[in-house]
Specification:
This protein is an alpha/beta fold and 354 residues long. It is built from ten helices and 15 strands. It folds into two domains: 157 residues, Nucleotidyltransferase, domain 5; 133 residues, Nucleotidyltransferase, domain 5, CATH 3.30.420. Helix 1 packs across helix 3 and helix 7 runs parallel beside helix 8. It binds adenosine-5'-triphosphate and magnesium ion. Magnesium ion binds next to loops.
Length: 354
């Protein structure tokens, strides 16, 4: 039995993506997690560019609208960052306790971070003794630029919420898999989150992220290529990509254009997987989970499976969550599942968790 003297407060999970903002709340019920709130709202393409908030007013207003539309009452907010403002590196350090490392992390991290150490917040996770067994240990170092954290926490605060945790997407995805899928000891799982502007790839072993990499590509690359090839606007190209119609535009070339971008996405995925396997000889990946809006692109999952020879599955972040069909239409949840992978992982964070 678990005792708790204070009920841990429910948090608001906010995934501020460049294409859309997602909001989620989970409640801890007797039999695990229960979905309490769920919403998303699109952003114009110029609001967040390359992971930087350009139009903070629009982002703030979009969050505010989501809060009122979904009647969100709690304030404490967990959000996350990804892309080039986040640096995650596996390093080998002399074996020491977590406390000792906490004291020396700034100093240890300095040599691995390509920015002045004063400009970043540093965190870490000890992965365990290194495989060579020379009194060293493997540590996952995480450094996030302070000015980017500030930009994100400012819009959250401006929207009337209280930012309490800023996580990184790849750790949220690790949590998401953990609560929805059984972990098989010794298995290596990859999760590829295909967003609009950023694609991240991580490998998780025994529930711990051991490798992660992000590349500045995603759904926008399809839209931009359609825009270029068919000489139309970004908005029209996005509509066509999502299966809509734009009057006066000949779309006979569309499948080929999408296919050519699929090929370059697949190449990017293979490169990352080869990079991981190259650094961990003798290992292999048992399964690839896909998430993010980009996982809905026609034929992309099967192409990734063919190119890597690894079984591919689209992750369902509602798999292990009770979702009352009275409030959440199961068909809608199925449809939007890929978008909510990060937010669902964030929603399991509680204050005081590490
Ligand atoms: N059915 C679909 N077919 C093709 N692409 C789709 C589909 N649905 C969504 N997308 C694309 O997925 C992307 C949005 O995915 P997602 O919500 O994961 O991105 P984001 O989190 O807002 O962006 P990022 O994390 O990169 O900042 C957009 O490029 C969108 O066009
Ligand atoms: Mg995203």
């Amino acid at each position: 039995m678990e005792f708790s003297f204070f009920k841990k407060k429910d948090v608001v999970a906010l995934d501020i993506g460049s294409n859309s903002i997602k909001i989620v709340q989970l409640r801890q019920a007797k039999k695990g997690w229960e979905l309490a709130k769920l919403g998303m709202a699109h952003l114009p393409p110029e609001a967040i560019v390359d992971g930087s908030i350009i139009d903070s007013m629009t982002v703030t207003n979009t969050i505010r609208d989501l809060i009122s539309e979904h009647n969100v009452k709690d304030k404490d907010t967990v959000s996350s960052l990804t892309g080039h403002s986040v640096i995650i590196k596996k390093v080998s350090l002399p074996a020491m306790t977590e406390e000792e490392l906490s004291d020396s992390i700034q100093w240890e991290a300095e040599q691995y971070i390509p920015f002045p150490i004063a400009d970043v917040n540093v965190d870490f996770q000890i992965l365990g003794e290194d495989t060579a067994g020379r009194g060293q240990m493997d540590v996952m170092l995480v450094a996030v630029k302070k000015d980017v954290i500030n930009d994100y926490t400012n819009v959250i605060r401006e929207a009337g919420l209280n930012p309490v945790v800023v996580d990184v997407d790849s750790f949220a995805l690790e949590n998401m898999l953990e609560i929805n899928y059984a972990i098989v000891p010794g298995e290596n799982l990859a999760i590829i989150n295909l967003g609009a502007s950023i694609t991240s790839i991580s490998v998780i072993t025994d529930g711990v992220t051991v490798f992660t990499r992000s590349v500045p590509t995603g759904g926008n690359q399809y839209t931009e290529e359609i825009q270029r090839q068919l000489s139309i606007s970004f908005k029209d190209a996005e509509d066509l990509k999502l299966g809509g119609e734009v009057s006066g535009v000949d779309t006979s070339e569309l499948p080929q254009v999408i296919d050519s971008v699929n090929d370059s996405m697949v190449l990017e995925v293979r490169r990352s997987i080869d990079f991981f396997l190259g650094g961990s000889p003798g290992t292999f990946i048992n399964r690839i989970y896909l998430s993010g809006g980009g996982s809905k692109v026609k034929d992309l999952p099967v192409k990734i499976q063919e190119a890597t020879n690894i079984p591919v599955e689209i992750a369902n972040p509602f798999n292990g969550i009770s979702c009352n069909p009275k409030y959440f239409d199961p068909e809608y949840l199925n449809e939007v599942a890929p978008y909510f992978a990060v937010a669902m992982g964030l929603a399991t964070r509680r204050l005081g968790d590490r």
